[in-house]
């Protein structure tokens, strides 16, 4: 059912943790399954993502997709990171079962939410980036 790559990233997730004082951080959640993903980005003065870390309270596919998403955005510019869509993450994982596609969407949204936070903090506009709809950071922090 799951590809070897999915199992590998689930069993050995890369970049788990937090970044202290991140350039951008975003938290997203899926109301249906209740899974939550938080993504931290460290972005240098040239707009290159130097480090990416995540914390995911969620299913195995959510953990595998967050792990792969952090690997894919590292070393990219913020503009290039926008191309790390859920499709790109799924492809890099050799696919996901149809019922698990929404888990990869969470990863895409988490990247966007962290980039949005970075853009907001720095007063810049990232072309093509829309305000994330499911940023639930305030709700999570309030609980
Ligand atoms: Fe919801 Fe996987 S089941 S993120």
UniProtKB/TrEMBL annotation:
Domain NIF system FeS cluster assembly NifU N-terminal: residue ranges: 1-122
CDD domains (alphabetical): IscU_like
Lineage, highest ranks first: Bacteria, Bacillati, Bacillota, Clostridia, Lachnospirales
GO BP term (any one): iron-sulfur cluster assembly
InterPro entries: NIF_FeS_clus_asmbl_NifU-like (IPR017787), NIF_FeS_clus_asmbl_NifU_N (IPR002871)
Protein name: Fe-S cluster assembly scaffold protein NifU
A molecular function GO annotation: iron ion binding
Entries under Pfam families matching the protein: NifU_N
């Amino acid at each position: 059912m799951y590809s070897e790559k999915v199992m590998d990233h689930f069993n050995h997730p890369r970049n788990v943790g937090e970044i202290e004082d991140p350039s951008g951080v975003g938290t997203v959640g899926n109301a249906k399954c209740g899974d939550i993903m938080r993504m931290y980005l460290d972005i240098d003065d040239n707009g290159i993502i130097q480090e990416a870390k995540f914390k995911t309270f969620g299913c195995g596919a959510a953990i595998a997709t967050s792990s792969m998403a952090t690997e894919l955005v590292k070393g990219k510019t913020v503009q290039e990171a926008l191309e790390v869509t859920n499709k790109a993450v799924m492809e890099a994982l050799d696919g996901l079962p149809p019922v698990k596609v929404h888990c990869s969407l969470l990863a895409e949204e988490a990247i966007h939410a962290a980039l949005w936070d970075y853009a907001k903090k720095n007063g810049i506009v990232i072309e093509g980036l829309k305000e994330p709809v499911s940023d639930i950071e305030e709700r999570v922090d309030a609980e």
